[in-house]
Design a protein that fits this description.
Blueprint lengths: L1 E13 L3 E3 L2 E3 L3 E3 L7 H13 L5 H4 L13 H13 L2 E11 L9 H12 L6 E6 L9 E12 L16 H13 L20
Parallel strand pairs: 5-6
Antiparallel strand pairs: 1-4, 1-7, 2-3, 5-7
Bound molecules: the ligand Nc1ccn([C@@H]2O[C@H](COP(=O)(O)O)[C@@H](O)[C@H]2O)c(=O)n1 and 2C-methyl-D-erythritol 2,4-cyclodiphosphate (CDI).
């Protein structure tokens, strides 16, 4: 298991679109940045890179490089996903806190969650989206994102197990082979989930 943490902040600016977690959000202002200013995806990128000690967003995508001007921040996340896969890990779950006065996040949290889950290639149930207003912080014109992520090792598939048995009566062999081949086997009884949905079997 590995844990990662990411943080980012961007100032609100009139005349640019607001994008949060890859979702375009109708609002009076957007977030200033060299890229599309998606504060949540930047914090996610840093959480993923940090979990495998692979540096941070700026080491991969320097703000001095014109290639990333106006870039879709999903590109940064995809690169971080490649880094964690190369290191042998995949995401267990991710949690986040957005800190901003407006817009209100709760009414659109489901859409942001679905967008983030889609970019990460994980189910929505493994993505947490929360929000707070920056009360007492004197940060009215700013959006802040904090993200934590938990990774697990992808791991090698378990080697096939072999069984040996001594049978004296050849008729008994027939019974044992038939029971192995013909009868349905419920793997849940062995305490392990099958790697597929048994209802899908035809
Ligand atoms: N931009 C925001 C900020 C907050 N919320 C929701 O309001 C709750 C109360 O926030 P406080 O910071 O005032 O304690 C918060 O837990 C969120 O549910 C929001 O939706 N969008
Ligand atoms: C994403 C990059 C690169 O375009 O720039 P910004 O969009 O300004 O975002 P920030 O989180 O300030 O810094 C990371 C940079 O690498």
């Amino acid at each position: 298991m590995r844990i990662g943490y990411g943080f980012d902040s961007h100032a609100f600016k009139p005349g640019v679109p607001l994008i949060l977690g890859g979702l375009p959000v109708p609002h009076t202002e957007g977030l200033a940045g060299h890229s599309d200013g998606d504060v949540l995806l930047h914090a996610i990128t840093d959480a993923l890179l940090g979990a495998v000690s692979a540096g941070d967003i700026g080491t991969f995508f320097p703000p001095t490089d014109d290639r990333w001007k106006g870039a879709d921040s999903a590109l940064f996340v995809r690169t971080a996903l490649e880094e964690i896969a190369t290191a042998g890990y995949r995401i267990v779950n991710l949690d986040s806190v957005l800190i901003l006065h407006r817009p209100k996040i709760v009414p659109i949290a489901g859409e942001i969650r679905a967008s983030v889950a889609d970019i990460l290639g994980i189910p929505s149930r493994n993505v947490g989206i929360k929000a707070k207003t920056p009360e007492g912080l004197n940060q009215d014109g700013v959006a802040v994102a904090h993200v934590t992520v938990l990774l697990e090792e992808i791991g090698e598939p378990e080697p096939l197990k072999t069984m040996t048995a001594e049978i004296e009566d050849p008729a008994e062999l027939e019974v044992v082979v038939r029971s192995l081949v013909d009868e349905p086997h419920d793997m849940r009884r062995l305490g392990r989930k099958p790697p597929f949905d048994t209802d899908d079997l035809t």
